[in-house]
Amino acid sequence: METRQRFADKFDWGLVFLLMMFFIVSALGISSAQTSGQYGTNFVIRQAFWYVVGGIIIAVALFFDSDQYKRLAWYMYGAGILLLLILLISPESIAPYRNGAKSWFMLGPLGSIQPSEFMKTFLILALARVITNHNELTTRKTLQSDFQLLLKIGFTTLVPLAFIMKQPDLGTSLVILAIMTGIILVSGITWKLIVPIYAFLGVIGGILLSLVIWAPEFLEKYTGFEPYQFGRIYAWLDPYNYSKLEGFHLINSLNAIGSGQIFGKGYSDGEVYIPENHTDFIFSVIGEEYGFIGASVVISLFFLLIYHLTKTALDTKEPFNAYVCAGIISMITFHVFQNIGMTIQLLPITGIPLPFISYGGSSLMGNMLALGIVFSMRFHHKTYMFSSEDS
Fold first, then answer.
1. Cα–Cα distances in Å, from 320 out to 124, 129, 135, 327?
2. Where are the transmembrane segments (predicted)?
C-alpha cells in the first residue's frame, strides 16, 4: 500500500491527462479525415496501436533516471547516427524513396519507421550532455569559453543535420535547427555571441528568400538548386497561381478552415478534399468540422503541454534535465507553429506533422520517447529536507 501511494505521488498524472486528450482529438480527426479519401486501412486503429506502443516506451523510460540518461546520451546519439547512415546506403527495397525523400525503413506488415524522428530526442540528450559537461569544467566563464561551447553545440548538431539533409528532409532539418536554437538560448552563452550570429543568419536567409523570388536564375546557376525546389515558396506567396500544383493543398486548406467558421460543420461533414489530410493537414480537418472553437481547443492543449514542460524545467534541480526540457519544448513548439502555420498560409508548406494528433507511428513514438524522459524526470525528482518544496 505504501509503495502504491509513493508511485502515485511521483507519477505525472497531469501529463497522462494531456496525452489522453490528445488521443481523443487525434482519433476524432483521423476517423473523419479518412472518410474523405480512398483508404483501405483504418488509421484510427493503427494510431491507437501506436499510442499503446508509445505508452510502453514511456513505461520503459521510467526505469532510467537523469544520471543514467546522461551516461547513455552519447550511445543513443551514436545509435541514431548509425541508423541514419544505414538508411542512406540501404537499397530501395528496404528504404524506398517517398515523395522524393529516402527517410523510411520498410518493416513489412508493421509499416515503416523514420529514424530521424528518434534522432531528434537523441540529439536533445547529447546537446544537454555537452552543455552540462562544458559548464561543469568551466571555472571562469569568458567570451572564449562561450564560443567553444557554441562550436561544440554546432558540431554535435551538424552531424545528424547533414544526414537528414542528404535524404533530403527539409522539415525535419528545420526542427533540428529549432532544437539547437532553443538549447543555445538557455545554455548560458552570452548574448554578445548569440545576437550577431543569428542576426547574420537572418540576413542570409532574407537574401536567399529575395533571390528565390526575384532572381531564381542566379540560384540555379551558382548553387545547383532546381526550379521545382522553389515551388513551395511561390505557392506560399501566391497559391492561386499554382492551384494545380504546389498551391493545391494550401488553397484547399484555407477553404476548409475558413468554411468551418465558428462552430464547424460537424463530425464527418467536411466537404473540402485534401489528399492525405489525416497526416500533415489534420488541423485543416479539425478547423473545417469543429470550427474556431475546435481549433482553439487544440491550440489550448498545446499551450497546456508547453506550460507543463516549462514548469518541469523550472522545478528540476538538475541542469541536465532543464536543458533536455528546453530541447523538447523547442521541438514541440516548432512542430506546432510550423504545422498550423502552413495550413493557414502563415508559413510555407513542409512535411511536418502536428505532434500527437497527426497520424504516424514514427512521429508519435519519437514524441512519446521525449515525453517518457519528462515522465522520468518527474518520477525520479529528488526533494531534500528543509527545501522550499517541503514547506
1. 10, 7, 11, 11
2. 12-33, 48-65, 72-91, 103-128, 149-165, 171-190, 197-215, 290-310, 322-344, 356-375
Contact (Cβ atoms closer than 8 angstroms) between residue 265 and residue 271: yes
Domain range for 151:
75-274+281-352
pLDDT digits (tens, 9 = 90+) for 214-268: 888 887 777 666 666 688 888 898 899 888 878 899 999 999 999 999 999 998 8
CA atoms within 13 A on the CB side of 190: 10
Asked if the structure places residue 312 within a domain, the reply is yes
The count of C-alpha atoms lying within 13 angstroms of the C-alpha of 288, restricted to the half-sphere facing its C-beta, is 24
- The cell for 204 is 542570409
Q: Judge contact between 114 and 104, C-beta under 8 A.
A: yes
Q: What is the pLDDT of residues 10-37, one digit of tens each?
A: 888 999 999 999 999 999 999 988 877 6
Q: What are the grid coordinates assigned to 41, written together?
A: 486501412
| CA pair distance 136, 118, nearest whole angstrom | 28
Residue closest to 61 by CA, chosen among 381, 383, 377, 382:
377
Residue 378 lies in a domain: no
Is there a domain that residue 165 lies in?
yes
Q: Is residue 175 part of a domain?
A: yes
Q: How far is CA 327 from CA 149, 178, 189, 199, 376, in A?
A: 16, 9, 15, 21, 16
pLDDT per residue over 168-184, tens digit each?
888 999 999 999 999 99
